[in-house]
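Table S7 (text form). Paired inputs.
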Amino acid sequence: MSAPNPQDDQAYVVRSDCAGVTTLTLNRPQQFNSLSQAMIAALQEQLDELADDPLVRVVVIAGAGKAFCAGHDLKEMRASRNKAFMQQLFGQCARMMMTLTRIPQPVIARVHGIATAAGCQLVSMCDLAVAADVAR
C-alpha cells in the first residue's frame, strides 16, 4: 500500500499498489516523461508483470512532475538517426501500446499536464482518460 515517491526513486516507472489499483507513474519529470527506449521498456516490463496478477483490478498511468508525457524522446532520436534504430524504437513502442489494449485490467490515463505526440497516443490507447482542467 505504498504511495509513489517519484522524487526519491530513480526508476523510469514507479509502481504503487492500493486495494486492487496499481498506479504506474512515468518518472522522468525533467524530460517531461518522454518515451525513451528505457521508459518504454520499463513500462512494458510493468505491464507484463501486472497482466497476470489477479490482485490487480485496475491500472492507472500517471506522470511525475508537470507533464503527463511529451511523446518520444527527441534527443535520443536525434542522436540515433539510423533506420534500424527508428524501426526498433517504433516497434518497441507499438508493442507497449498494444499491450495496454490486451491486458485484462482496465487502464486509466490520469492526465494532469501536457500529453503530446506519442504521449497523446499513450492516452488514447488507455480504456479511459481522466484529465485535470489544466491538461493539454
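Next pair, protein 2 of 2.
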Amino acid sequence: MNDVDYRSLAEQYGTPLYVYQGDKIESRYRLLRSCLPETFEVFYSVKCNPLLGVCQLFRELGSGIEVASLGELRMALQAGFKPGDIIFTSPGKSMEELEAAIDCGIYSINVESVEEARRINAIAMRRNALAKISVRINPNFNFSGAGMKMTGVPTQFGIDQSEMAEAMDEILSLPYVSLIGIHVFSGTQMLNADLIVRNLAEVMKLAVELSEAHDLALQFLDLGGGFGVPYFQREQELDTDKLRLGLSELWEQYGEKLRGVRIGVESGRFLLAESGVFLTKVLYVKDCKGAKYVVCDGGSNQHASSAFLGRYVRNNFPMRLHGKDGEETEEANVVGSLCTPTDVIGQKVRLAKAEAGDLLVVEKSGAYGLTHSPVLFLSHALPAEIMIYRDEVHVLRERGKAEDCLHGQRSLLTGRSVRDEYVYSI
C-alpha cells in the first residue's frame, strides 16, 4: 500500500483516518477460497470490521456472513445477505436476538449450551416455527497453534466434548428445534498451516463420530476460522500453499463421509487486516527523561489493538512516517492525546526523525480497528473510514463531530433529549 497518496487523503478527509483497499480485500478473499476444497464456503466474521460497505463487498464476492449480535444481524440484512447465508455465533445471545434470528429464518444459530437450545425451542414453539441450530463443541483437543485458544481449555464457548452425548440426546428431543450442524472454533491468530490442518482433521473426525453415534443427518459443519496474519518481524506468514495441500489431502480422506454437508470456515482478520491502514498526524515531538515521544492526534481510543489493549497482538504493529522511507531511524514511543499512560500505540519503535505535521501510517489496521476500540473515552470525534476500490474513493463512514458525544443523552434539568434542545457549537 506504499503507492497510495496518504497525504492527499489525510488533507481531504482529516486525521485520524482509516483507509482500506477494496482490491486487497478481494485478493485476500480469493486467496483463502483457493486454499479450500471447492465445495467449502467462507463466512465473513462481521466483528472484524462491521462497516456496511465492507459487508456489501463480501456479499458481492459470494461470501456468507457470521454475526454475533442483533446489530450485526441487521447490518448483514442491510448489506443484502439472504437469511440462508447468515449464521449467528455468540456465547450470550439475548432473548431479543434469538427471536430476531428465528423470525428472520437464518441458516443456523450456533448454540453454546443446552440451556440456549431450550430457549430457542420455547421461542420457536410460541411462533409455531422450526428453528435451525448447530451445536458448538469445546473438544478435548487443540492442535491449532492459536494465539488465543478457544477449545481444549476452560472457556465460555461451547459444550464440553465429555458432555456431548447427554447434550445431543436432549437437543435432538426438542420438537421445535432442528439440529442441522456442528461447530468448533479452535482459536484466533493461527499461523502454522500444519497445525491448522491437523486440528481440522480432528474436528471432521469428531463431527462424523457424533453424527453416526446419534443418527444425525448432518447438514452443516462450521469449522471455525482464526487464520492469522503476522504483525511483527519474527512471526511467519501463514503458508497458504501448505494449507491448500493439507486441506486437499484432508478432503480426500473425509469427502465421501461428508458428502452433501455444507462446510464453512469463518474469517475476518485474514481477509481484512492487511487491507487497511490507520493514519494519524504528529502534533508534537518531545523528550522526557531520555525517552522520545511522538504525540499524535489519534490513539488507543481509536485503535486499541495497536496499543495492546487486545490480547491477540503482543508487539508493535508495523508503522512508519509517510514519505520518509529510507531515512535514518531512531527509537520513539508513539502516543495519542488521551489523559492516560496506556495511550501508547507504538512502544520503542524505530521511526525516521518525526516532526510536527508528519503523517504516521499504522499498517495492518484493516481488522479489529475502530469498532474494537473504546471510542467514547474522552469524547473525541470518530475518524472517517474510506475505501479505495477499483480506483475510486468511497466514504464508508463520515468523519464524526465533537457534539456526537451527546447523541442519545437526555438533560437532567429538562428531561428532554439533547437532540431536541439547542446544542452549543464552536
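The two ends are 37 Å apart (CA to CA).
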